[in-house]
Structure formats: structure tokens, C-alpha cells
Amino acid sequence: EHRGLVKHTGGCHCGAVRFEVWASAELRVFNCNCSICTKKQNRHFIVPASRFKLLKGADNLTTYTFNTHQAKHTFCKTCGVQSFYIPRSNPDGFGIAPHCLDDGTVEVIVTENFNGKEWEKAVMEHKMIRDMSKP
């Protein structure tokens, strides 16, 4: 079903929110410098919605939006940790925080800077960011 991918599990700090995600053992993580990503140090990798499953905690999530209201910044109501969200660049997928994954399944993290201060330009110039949420 998810050939060549690894099942990663993870969640928030208090454990109220848990998820699983199918992705490579070698993660390509974006380090965005937009206002919200800078404030909360939101480094993330992107997967299609079909590779993400919320295992528990839907009732413990709350969502913050701003500006275009396209990105859905979800976080745990109890501990405040955002372990995943729906990015503006990929509204049909999820941005997963690699630091919220359980130990043992990630082999390598490659970080790529993304110029979110000039979001529209950066998305247009990036060769594949919008395709990262395609199955």
C-alpha cells in the first residue's frame, strides 16, 4: 500500500493527540521564515492526506488561522503542541513536525530553507512543493 515508506507514529507532548504517517525514513523538512513558522519554530515535512491518520485526540485539537485562512494550524488544547497542520502550500495534505515523531523510524533529516516572507514568490519558484501532497 505504501511501498518504500515507513510508518512513523507521533503526537503532542501530553499524549492526548496521537497520529501515524507514512513517509520516507529520510525526511525532507522545510524551515520556513514566515511570521508564524518563525514564532513557533515550525519545521515540517509534507505528506498527502491519504498517508496521515489521526489515531486519537480529534476532540482535543483546536485550530488557528490568520491572513488568507488557508493554513490550518492545529494544536493540542492541553499542552499547546502543534504536531501537524494543514499548510497553505498543500491544503490537500499535512505538514508534520518531525520533532513530534516517536524515536526509531527516522534515519536522516535534510532541511531546506523556504522563504515564507515572500510566500507567493517562493511557492511559484519551488519546483515541487505543491506536488508533495499528491498521492
Automatic annotation (TrEMBL):
Looking at the record's lineage, which domain of life comes first? Eukaryota
All copies of domain CENP-V/GFA, residue ranges: 8-120
Any one GO molecular function term: carbon-sulfur lyase activity
What are the protein's UniProt keywords? Metal-binding, Zinc
Cite the Pfam families for this sequence: GFA (PF04828)
Cross-referenced InterPro entries: CENP-V-like, CENP-V/GFA, Mss4-like_sf
Q: Is Zinc one of the keywords?
A: yes
| Family stated for the protein in its record | Belongs to the Gfa family.
Which PANTHER family does this chain map to? CENP-V_GFA DOMAIN-CONTAINING PROTEIN (PTHR28620:SF1), CENTROMERE PROTEIN V (PTHR28620)
Protein name (Swiss-Prot/TrEMBL): Centromere protein V
Which organism does this record belong to? Pterocles gutturalis
